[in-house]
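User: I'm curious what two different proteins look like when written out as structure tokens. Can you demonstrate?

Assistant: Sure. I'll show them one after the other, since each token string lines up with its own sequence. Here's the first protein:
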Amino acid sequence: MVSPPPPRGRAAQSSALSTRFALPGREADGDWLDAMEDVDGGPPPLRTTVTEEAARKIISRNKSPDVPFDRSINAYRGCEHGCIYCYARPTHAYLDLSPGLDFESRLFAKPEAAKLLRRELGARGYSPAPIAMGTNTDPYQPIEARYRLTRQILEVCLETRHPVTITTKSDRILHDLDLLAELARHRLTAVAISVTSLDARLSRSLEPRAASPAKRLDAIEKLSAAGVPVWVNVSPIVPAITEEWIERILEAAAARGVRGASWIMLRLPHEVAPLFREWLAAHFPDRADKVMHIVQSLRGGADYQSDFFTRMKPQGVWADLIRARFRIAKARLGLGDHRADLDIAQFRPPRRDGQMTLF
């Protein structure tokens, strides 16, 4: 049986469930296929649905020794940007949903996020440290326009003078430029904008519903002009597909005022690897084998290595070459490392009734 083509505007080629947790396999049944309306010779658009989640807390803690933060906030589960390489895709398997198309279209929002944050910041004995946003799913994905959860969280951070960092690939962040500029004035925020290439068509394939590269660069320029510390994150670098853009991305970002730059090599944990292979076969059949051969050469012969530090530090000649290119380009452009020196001394916990403490 030939599988139907994926819905237009989505990156994943399938919606099969993960078997990692011994869940039963799932495929579209015949009735669904019969009901498909042919649109320009392909399937109809896949509609995005959002389920509101009653979370018990909003700050997630981690003890990973190779991650530069110990707490984060993800007000959304799943991400409509649909980046095929997203390492967060496997989290949908915990919900008995597909890390493929479900991750892109069956989203979850935590409408009480700001209320939960206020309660947790006000807990007796809370010790402040920068909260990272955008570590799992993008805080400025399209449903943020409806829910405004990221903005509400930033409002709490500004009120309590709590430091917060943001990583995004959306120019929607400019909707909160007023809050970010004020947070920056108090040394309470820093932003990283992810840019994978400067080719809009390639970006649309890799990251179907993310902002175009031009819009991301525009966001960098406007954030910088407003005094917000901003870095460019060339992430992920996909061998033989996006690596040619490294120097040009850094040049374009430097011209728009970034303070520094970082990079991450493509990571393919769990269900991401087969999804990425499907994407390669659909979009780059001429070099699919080459890409995976390079990926495996970076990861000790495997698609991925999950050990601490190893997962973040690809090895081999190819990795060394990219490190050298990145180091040389940064030095030439006067770019520093991606480090944010944020102030935790200003933190003032809220009271549970929403009022600030006076002493």
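Here's a second, unrelated protein for contrast:
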Amino acid sequence: MRAGGLRLHPRDGWTCRCIPSAGGATGDVRITTRYDEDDFTKALMGVMHETGHALYEQGRPRDWLNQPVGLARGMAVHESQSLIVEMQACRSPEFLCWLAPVAQEAFGGSGPAWEPDNLRRLYSRVERGFIRVDADEVTYPAHIILRYRLEKALIAGDLALADLPGAWNDGMKELVGVVPPDDRLGCLQDIHWPSGAWGYFPSYTLGAMTAAQLFEAAAKADPDIRPALARGDLGPLVAWLGANVHGKGCLYASGDELLIAATGRPLDAAVFRRHLESRYLGA
């Protein structure tokens, strides 16, 4: 499979067991993933997600790399680039039709479980769960809303740190409908707060909304994007993103200005809702 200038194959990979991440320095971008022996799709989609981040970093305007204008346009936009690859492109029906026979060959699979229709069912399954990174697109925003509420309360001094586990469990019951059995599956599951990344969580849902809007605009602008995904080729999509997002750096004063230039309108929640209804109600 080709993703712009990056070539990926199911037999290529990374051997670390850390949380999927992307990082590095200008011109040297590294990604990691994680593996589940019972479900190869977790590692695959982790790679796709981090590849989106890496492609953004690699596509920043080369003439501006050492200037503020050459930086990425904020973390909500950065997350949109990981999610447009993972959620919009690589979970699309076109890509899954290409992936099914490749996965069968790579893992020696056979039978109905390895057919494109079953992969689509797997990726359109909605269920309640404790872990944010394992949540489907429909329930994922509820995890983000919980963390945002708790962050605001903690920063404002309205919630004592000692009361966080109980507040977390109450919030999970209200928003997701489950109560974690312990803090490992509850308030200690993310690295963001202990690493100092306060206020970051909304970037994920803002990024998902932005990704849906960018993908819709890209597919309209270039009719070859969806057929290319059916060939395992992300090249046309990455080319559009390079011209409209990656190569713009911080040229625009805000993510909304970039989105208006790329799609003709500011962030519109109706586009994300339309995407969710199409994928999860139309499946």
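A detail about the second structure: The radius of gyration is 19 Å.
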